[in-house]
Amino acid sequence: MTQASKSHDPITTQMSDVKARVNTVLELAKSLGADSAEVAMSRQQGLSVSTRMGEVENVEFTNDGGLGITVYRDGRKGSASTADLSEQALVKAVTAAVNIAKYTSVDDCSGLADKSLLAMNPVDLDLYHPHEISTEEAIELAKACEESALAVDPRITNSDGASFDTYAGFKVYGNSHGQLVGYPSTRHSLSCVMIASDGEDMERDYAYTVSREFSLLESAKNVGLQASQETLSRLKPQTIATGKVPVLFRADIANTIWGHFIAAISGGNLYRKSSFLLDAIGNDVFPKFLNISERPHIAKGLASSAFDSEGVLTQDREIITDGALQTYLLTSYSARKLGLTTTGNAGGIHNWLVNAQGHDGSFDKMLKTLGTGLLVTEMMGQGVNVVNGDYSRGAAGFWVENGEIAYPVSEITIAGNLAQMFKGIVAVGSDVDMRGSIRTGSILIDEMQVAGH
Hints:
Blueprint: H1 3-7, H2 10-31, E1 36-52, E2 55-73, E3 76-82, H3 87-100, H4 135-150, E4 156-175, E5 180-198, E6 201-211, H5 220-233, E7 243-249, H6 251-264, H7 267-271, E8 291-294, E9 317-321, E10 324-325, H8 332-338, E11 352-355, H9 363-370, E12 373-380, E13 390-401, E14 404-417, H10 418-423, E15 425-428, E16 438-439, E17 443-451
Parallel strand pairs: 7-12, 11-16
Antiparallel strand pairs: 1-2, 1-4, 2-3, 4-5, 5-6, 7-17, 8-9, 8-11, 9-10, 12-13, 13-14, 14-17, 15-17
């Protein structure tokens, strides 16, 4: 989108208006006695359609948003929010936040992020790519996806539907340090869920594509084809004997392993002493060959952001270098609790890149390295204890023999301890899944306890 067209774009125009509104709210907070304040507002508008067996199931137009304000007064904190952005509602929200601050406890660690760490002039990360599409065109896209899936094989007997979603919106953040920033963004996605039957067996699986830019989405035909192929591959699952075997987490599931690692190094769990990775900076958490980098400023990245939810400037950061932990993930509050400095991770992580150079390979190569063991393609349940690292979750996938997929398996449980699992990573695939905040290939762990039912 050119600079000229941006200036006439409705989202860009709304964002300018909201910045003025945020500034007014900050001034109001000051006039009501707040020592400092911060205001965040987001707005999103879009279209979501879904079809099932060729029939339109849902058409939804979205146009919503909200404003949240936090004020600080004499070491006390008060917060309020409103979806009504009229002047009267904003006055009511600010007044409520100031009143709440009279009754909360004094906390020396609360407060705005340090001014020196803020992104006063954030870079444009090219996250905004609006795409005009009519409701009819969106419906046809979802229908085409389903038609492609249903045509793959006669065992594809039913559909749980196809969905197309397109959203455009913006975020604005301001505080009494004089920071007033914002950015627009878009997100487009297409997904399909299919059902296959073979005798009495019935299985379900899905496929999806997502991007900031509509033209970069996978075609409807390919998404439908992949959904059916995934579903068919699950038919006639077997159970497996209980025992210890190597486990390969496919790339689209591997991010769950990193998600547990993120929880273990997040400031909230650390200052509460609720993590098995307390005091682990500099320690070897993973094998020497593994590196993890955070790159917040990747153009069009799904998790790119020039600043975090506290307005702190995001920056390139090494999380793991040669297997050793380099940093925790901190907000201003958790950093003060720990006597450290925020890492700009208020609100989450920003594009993690997992690299295991010399110990990576294609998906087929990862299967060969696995040899005989379990390939996990679906996880269920939440049996993970970040305090001690104990791990136990339901899973489904495939049994692999001599580097070849032998048959699907279901109703199994995989168990271990995260500290041992991290150290037991043998390889990370080059089959990187780019559809989320963690860009990772498949992960092969040397040994886990697997139990059939």
